[in-house]
């Protein structure tokens, strides 16, 4: 982006077009065969989107569940100071990457950070992997300073990719899908229903957002879909299937 494209408040316009959605879903096809390509593309797109809500230069950003650090790379390339927090040391070295030197091991349900200390609390596709989703969201709000931003996105259980590698059999039940995967592949799925993956719904987190008194809603939208599909998040049941990945953006009061 050139400086001419930067708004007076330091944010940068972002266009969620149909072409962008097609590109993301095309890249997703390479998640298993070329994870560096897919996660690199997703990270760059996500940081461009994040910059439309807040400037990042010099900001302290915490990546909750950052794993091998693809998002941290993109955040730092945009001038942010990034700290990764992940509960699984193995996740930090996935895809042959070395663990991030600016990472700490800790739970998303009890973030090892002081209250009100970070400018941006960021999490991509982690919420569906914790058993207590509202507690994780509470923790993200807690560690964010007044005026800071919370960026939280997650895959919806009833979306086509809700069961992750066990999809689309999750529509017949998470336990059934995991057992079927095990029989077929001779091992448990990485995203194992009831152990490392849970049924996350839009309704639950939208209800949580509406109950909050210390944040303002900046955006609520399908993360990967075009802007014109944004109203779908307000249509019960249909949003659980079509939204695919729900993005919640909040500003701490």
Structure notes:
- The protein contains seven helices and seven strands; from the N terminus they run ααβαβββαβααβαβ.
- 40% of the residues are buried.
- With 253 residues, the chain is an alpha/beta fold.
- Strand 4, helix 4 and strand 5 form a beta-alpha-beta unit.
- Helix 2 packs across helix 3.
- Strands 3-2-1-4-5-7-6 form a seven-stranded mixed beta sheet.
- It has helices spanning 18-28, 35-50, 70-77, 133-143, 174-185, 202-211, 238-242, and strands at 60-64, 81-86, 103-105, 118-124, 144-155, 215-222, 245-252.
- It starts with 17 loop residues before the first helix and ends with a strand.
State the gist of this model:
The chain is α/β, with parallel strands linked by helices and 253 residues long. It has helices at residues 18-28, 35-50, 70-77, 133-143, 174-185, 202-211, 238-242, and strands spanning 60-64, 81-86, 103-105, 118-124, 144-155, 215-222, 245-252.
Task: For this entry, give a set of tags.
alpha/beta, 253 residues
Question: Topology of this structure?
Answer:
Blueprint: H1 18-28, H2 35-50, E1 60-64, H3 70-77, E2 81-86, E3 103-105, E4 118-124, H4 133-143, E5 144-155, H5 174-185, H6 202-211, E6 215-222, H7 238-242, E7 245-252
Parallel strand pairs: 1-2, 1-4, 2-3, 4-5
Antiparallel strand pairs: 5-7, 6-7
Helix pairs in contact: 2-3
